[in-house]
Design goal:
The relative contact order is 0.17. By secondary structure, the protein is α+β, with helices and mostly antiparallel strands. Strand 10 and strand 11 form a beta hairpin. It is 26% helix and 22% strand.
Amino acid sequence: MPELRKDPVTERWVIIATDRARRPSDFVRHKAATINRQFCPFCPGNEGKTPSEVLAHRDGTGANQTGWSLRVVPNKFPVLEIHGDLNREGEGLFDKMEGIGAHEVVIESTDHDTTLADMPERQVEKVLWAFRERMLDLKRDKRLQYVLLFKNQGAAAGASLSHPHSQLIALPVVPKRVIEEVDGAKNYFDYKERCVFCDIMRQESKAAVRVVTETDRYLVIEPYAARFPFETWILPRVHQSHFEDIDAAQLENLAWVLRSTLRKLDKVLERPAYNFVVHTAPLQEPHMQHFHWHMEIMPKLTNVAGFEWGTGFYINPTPPEESAQFLREAGLG
């Protein structure tokens, strides 16, 4: 019989459709977007096709030239612009402001055909360092309230270019979904005087049925109320609300954990398209006792349709306990 499960943070309900459970081989795969390397703006030699870099890991070469191993550049077609004033104003009951923010692309490698799962661990670590460095830099701009770090891997996940890259968008407001998650965590903390994410980790680690990987610094799980098949969370064991506060040892281990997790998903699901998002606290807020940064990886295996849009419920045809077992059995360090 199907189950209704409630997320303990946001109080969102999910339907786990156990009566029509789907195995990894049951999902349709979509081919990734491809483009000739000669025309790829992210490939070495095409630096002039991107805006000037704001961060790069280089081997003694000058800015915006070849010789780099990672680059961060402003998006050529940004959703928000860094220059200008917010100019908040109202039109009757409506509110508006200028589209101030930042939209940047992290070009993760010089190799056009690689993925995060295939990269050397050290290169994955460079990507994570770039996330941290750009967040710390943007945090100095007090107009900016939130930075969303995310990756769209594959055409089905929204990637328009196949060259490995991730993105960040800095916003002058805190997104509603972030507020809901932070407020849900705060309500739990006010009632129990404990972080809900820390409690989730303690319970999941003890039960072990939804655990994918454990290290001294991270726990990888399939969440109890997973919205999507093989939705996967990476949680730091130490309580931290802001991703940008991560230290070198944590980053090094996170590189291994993230790469290992993506390799497991690639093996079990035959290299699926996916999105990952870093859930972190608002930029200008001090350390929060009630919130805990984490990563969420969501393979694109099902479609959101009318029922989901109309109710806010998600239907997940693969119980997270089964997803965890498939990923554990994938091995792969």
